[in-house]
Amino acid sequence: QVQLQESGPGLVKPPQTLSLTCTVSGGSLTNGDFYWSWIRQPAGKGPEWLGRANTNGISSYNPSLRGRVTISVDTSKNQFSLRLTSVTAADTAVYFCARDIVWLGDLFFDACDIWGQGTMVTVSP
Amino acid sequence: SSDLTQDPAVSVALGQTVSITCQGDSLRSHYASWYQQKPGHAPLLVIYTKDNRPSGIPDRFSASSSGTTASLTITGARAEDEADYYCSSRDDSNNRLFGGGTKLTVL
User: Fold this and answer.
1) Chain B nearest C-alpha distance from A68 (Å)
2) Is the pLDDT confidence value at A32 over 90?
3) How far, in Å, are A34, A102, A109, B19, B37 from residue A112 at the CA level?
Protein backbone atom coordinates (compact mmCIF):
# COMPACT_ATOMS: atom_id res chain seq x y z
CA GLN A 1 0.00 0.00 0.00
CA VAL A 2 1.05 3.59 -0.48
CA GLN A 3 3.20 5.05 2.29
CA LEU A 4 4.58 8.54 2.79
CA GLN A 5 7.74 9.50 4.66
CA GLU A 6 8.88 13.02 5.50
CA SER A 7 12.55 13.96 5.69
CA GLY A 8 14.52 17.12 6.33
CA PRO A 9 16.29 19.13 9.02
CA GLY A 10 14.76 19.20 12.48
CA LEU A 11 16.17 22.63 13.31
CA VAL A 12 16.00 25.77 11.18
CA LYS A 13 17.29 29.21 12.12
CA PRO A 14 15.15 32.28 11.55
CA PRO A 15 14.79 33.83 9.00
CA GLN A 16 16.08 30.93 6.88
CA THR A 17 14.08 28.65 4.57
CA LEU A 18 12.52 25.41 5.77
CA SER A 19 12.78 22.61 3.21
CA LEU A 20 11.18 19.19 3.60
CA THR A 21 10.76 16.24 1.27
CA CYS A 22 8.09 13.56 1.23
CA THR A 23 8.96 10.23 -0.39
CA VAL A 24 6.09 8.16 -1.76
CA SER A 25 6.53 4.38 -1.68
CA GLY A 26 4.24 1.55 -2.72
CA GLY A 27 2.69 3.62 -5.50
CA SER A 28 3.32 6.38 -7.98
CA LEU A 29 2.49 10.02 -7.54
CA THR A 30 2.04 10.44 -11.29
CA ASN A 31 -1.71 9.88 -10.99
CA GLY A 32 -3.06 13.32 -11.82
CA ASP A 33 -6.24 12.64 -9.82
CA PHE A 34 -4.27 12.96 -6.60
CA TYR A 35 -2.95 16.06 -4.95
CA TRP A 36 -0.01 16.04 -2.59
CA SER A 37 -0.38 18.20 0.49
CA TRP A 38 1.65 19.55 3.36
CA ILE A 39 -0.03 20.06 6.72
CA ARG A 40 1.53 21.17 9.98
CA GLN A 41 0.47 20.91 13.59
CA PRO A 42 1.91 23.04 16.40
CA ALA A 43 2.07 21.33 19.76
CA GLY A 44 -1.37 21.07 21.35
CA LYS A 45 -3.17 22.62 18.39
CA GLY A 46 -5.17 21.48 15.39
CA PRO A 47 -3.65 20.82 11.98
CA GLU A 48 -3.06 23.69 9.57
CA TRP A 49 -3.17 23.01 5.84
CA LEU A 50 -0.23 24.64 4.05
CA GLY A 51 -1.00 23.79 0.45
CA ARG A 52 -1.03 21.12 -2.22
CA ALA A 53 0.12 20.39 -5.73
CA ASN A 54 -0.39 17.72 -8.36
CA THR A 55 1.53 16.44 -11.35
CA ASN A 56 -0.63 18.47 -13.73
CA GLY A 57 0.96 21.68 -12.43
CA ILE A 58 -2.02 22.69 -10.33
CA SER A 59 -1.19 24.05 -6.90
CA SER A 60 -2.90 26.04 -4.19
CA TYR A 61 -1.69 27.48 -0.93
CA ASN A 62 -3.04 28.69 2.38
CA PRO A 63 -3.45 32.44 1.95
CA SER A 64 -2.49 33.00 5.59
CA LEU A 65 1.10 32.13 4.68
CA ARG A 66 1.29 35.18 2.44
CA GLY A 67 3.32 33.68 -0.40
CA ARG A 68 5.99 32.07 1.80
CA VAL A 69 5.16 28.50 0.77
CA THR A 70 5.93 26.52 -2.38
CA ILE A 71 5.14 22.86 -3.04
CA SER A 72 6.80 21.03 -5.91
CA VAL A 73 6.43 17.51 -7.26
CA ASP A 74 9.32 15.42 -8.66
CA THR A 75 7.92 12.42 -10.52
CA SER A 76 11.39 11.07 -11.35
CA LYS A 77 12.11 10.59 -7.66
CA ASN A 78 8.50 9.90 -6.57
CA GLN A 79 8.83 12.76 -4.11
CA PHE A 80 7.22 16.08 -3.38
CA SER A 81 8.69 18.94 -1.41
CA LEU A 82 7.82 21.88 0.79
CA ARG A 83 9.65 25.15 0.87
CA LEU A 84 8.72 27.74 3.51
CA THR A 85 10.68 30.98 3.49
CA SER A 86 11.43 33.55 6.19
CA VAL A 87 10.64 31.24 9.08
CA THR A 88 9.97 32.42 12.62
CA ALA A 89 9.34 30.61 15.89
CA ALA A 90 5.65 30.50 14.93
CA ASP A 91 6.57 27.98 12.23
CA THR A 92 7.69 25.43 14.84
CA ALA A 93 5.45 22.39 14.41
CA VAL A 94 5.18 18.78 13.35
CA TYR A 95 5.01 18.78 9.56
CA PHE A 96 3.01 16.08 7.77
CA CYS A 97 2.80 15.20 4.12
CA ALA A 98 -0.44 13.66 2.90
CA ARG A 99 -2.23 12.36 -0.17
CA ASP A 100 -5.14 14.62 -0.93
CA ILE A 101 -8.02 13.32 -3.05
CA VAL A 102 -10.85 15.38 -4.42
CA TRP A 103 -12.35 12.82 -6.81
CA LEU A 104 -11.70 9.08 -6.70
CA GLY A 105 -13.16 7.91 -9.96
CA ASP A 106 -16.83 8.89 -9.78
CA LEU A 107 -16.72 9.28 -6.01
CA PHE A 108 -16.36 12.76 -4.51
CA PHE A 109 -13.79 12.01 -1.81
CA ASP A 110 -12.49 15.39 -0.70
CA ALA A 111 -10.13 14.35 2.10
CA CYS A 112 -6.55 13.41 2.92
CA ASP A 113 -6.52 9.64 3.09
CA ILE A 114 -2.85 8.78 3.63
CA TRP A 115 -0.47 10.69 5.88
CA GLY A 116 3.20 10.42 6.66
CA GLN A 117 4.25 9.89 10.27
CA GLY A 118 5.27 13.55 10.60
CA THR A 119 8.55 15.27 11.30
CA MET A 120 9.21 17.80 14.05
CA VAL A 121 10.71 21.09 12.91
CA THR A 122 11.92 23.62 15.44
CA VAL A 123 12.70 27.19 14.44
CA SER A 124 15.25 28.65 16.82
CA PRO A 125 18.44 30.69 16.66
CA SER B 1 -7.93 30.69 15.20
CA SER B 2 -9.78 28.18 13.05
CA ASP B 3 -12.81 28.74 10.85
CA LEU B 4 -14.13 25.43 12.18
CA THR B 5 -15.04 25.36 15.86
CA GLN B 6 -15.03 22.26 18.05
CA ASP B 7 -15.63 21.70 21.75
CA PRO B 8 -12.22 21.16 23.36
CA ALA B 9 -13.20 18.04 25.29
CA VAL B 10 -15.95 15.46 25.47
CA SER B 11 -16.28 12.31 27.58
CA VAL B 12 -18.33 9.15 27.15
CA ALA B 13 -18.90 6.07 29.25
CA LEU B 14 -17.61 2.82 27.82
CA GLY B 15 -20.20 1.32 25.46
CA GLN B 16 -22.28 4.47 25.25
CA THR B 17 -22.87 6.81 22.30
CA VAL B 18 -21.16 10.16 21.87
CA SER B 19 -21.37 12.92 19.29
CA ILE B 20 -18.59 15.37 18.51
CA THR B 21 -19.66 18.56 16.78
CA CYS B 22 -18.00 20.99 14.41
CA GLN B 23 -19.37 24.41 13.49
CA GLY B 24 -18.47 26.71 10.65
CA ASP B 25 -19.98 28.66 7.80
CA SER B 26 -18.12 26.55 5.24
CA LEU B 27 -20.15 23.52 6.32
CA ARG B 28 -23.24 25.06 4.80
CA SER B 29 -21.70 24.49 1.36
CA HIS B 30 -19.03 21.82 1.81
CA TYR B 31 -18.86 18.36 3.36
CA ALA B 32 -16.92 17.66 6.52
CA SER B 33 -14.36 14.92 6.89
CA TRP B 34 -13.23 13.61 10.27
CA TYR B 35 -9.85 12.47 11.54
CA GLN B 36 -8.81 10.55 14.64
CA GLN B 37 -5.39 11.26 16.14
CA LYS B 38 -3.72 9.38 18.95
CA PRO B 39 -0.66 10.79 20.76
CA GLY B 40 2.48 10.66 18.68
CA HIS B 41 0.66 9.54 15.56
CA ALA B 42 -0.54 11.14 12.36
CA PRO B 43 -4.24 11.85 11.91
CA LEU B 44 -6.26 8.91 10.59
CA LEU B 45 -9.18 9.54 8.26
CA VAL B 46 -12.35 8.00 9.72
CA ILE B 47 -15.11 9.75 7.72
CA TYR B 48 -15.04 11.42 4.30
CA THR B 49 -17.66 13.12 2.18
CA LYS B 50 -20.60 13.36 4.49
CA ASP B 51 -20.79 9.80 5.91
CA ASN B 52 -18.37 7.46 4.16
CA ARG B 53 -15.85 5.31 6.02
CA PRO B 54 -12.49 4.31 4.56
CA SER B 55 -11.71 0.61 4.49
CA GLY B 56 -10.91 -0.69 7.97
CA ILE B 57 -12.84 1.95 9.92
CA PRO B 58 -15.50 0.32 12.13
CA ASP B 59 -19.13 1.02 11.42
CA ARG B 60 -19.61 2.43 14.91
CA PHE B 61 -18.27 5.67 13.39
CA SER B 62 -20.89 7.71 11.52
CA ALA B 63 -21.45 11.34 10.61
CA SER B 64 -24.18 13.81 9.80
CA SER B 65 -24.54 17.44 8.97
CA SER B 66 -27.15 20.18 9.18
CA GLY B 67 -26.67 23.79 8.25
CA THR B 68 -23.39 25.02 9.68
CA THR B 69 -22.91 22.07 12.03
CA ALA B 70 -21.36 18.68 11.32
CA SER B 71 -21.31 15.81 13.79
CA LEU B 72 -19.28 12.66 14.24
CA THR B 73 -21.06 9.97 16.22
CA ILE B 74 -19.45 6.95 17.86
CA THR B 75 -22.03 4.31 18.78
CA GLY B 76 -20.83 1.95 21.48
CA ALA B 77 -17.58 3.72 22.35
CA ARG B 78 -14.59 1.51 23.05
CA ALA B 79 -11.46 2.27 25.04
CA GLU B 80 -9.42 2.45 21.83
CA ASP B 81 -11.60 5.31 20.58
CA GLU B 82 -10.00 7.64 23.14
CA ALA B 83 -8.19 10.18 20.98
CA ASP B 84 -8.31 13.68 19.54
CA TYR B 85 -10.83 14.16 16.75
CA TYR B 86 -10.56 16.84 14.09
CA CYS B 87 -13.11 17.96 11.55
CA SER B 88 -12.02 19.31 8.19
CA SER B 89 -13.74 21.04 5.31
CA ARG B 90 -12.88 23.56 2.63
CA ASP B 91 -13.60 27.19 2.04
CA ASP B 92 -15.01 28.66 -1.15
CA SER B 93 -11.47 29.04 -2.53
CA ASN B 94 -10.93 25.27 -2.06
CA ASN B 95 -8.45 25.78 0.74
CA ARG B 96 -8.62 23.02 3.33
CA LEU B 97 -9.70 23.96 6.85
CA PHE B 98 -9.25 22.07 10.10
CA GLY B 99 -10.99 22.45 13.42
CA GLY B 100 -9.14 22.93 16.68
CA GLY B 101 -9.93 19.40 17.79
CA THR B 102 -11.95 17.61 20.46
CA LYS B 103 -10.27 15.40 23.03
CA LEU B 104 -12.47 12.35 23.61
CA THR B 105 -12.14 10.57 26.94
CA VAL B 106 -13.71 7.13 27.35
CA LEU B 107 -14.61 6.56 30.99
Assistant:
1) 16
2) no
3) 10, 9, 9, 22, 13
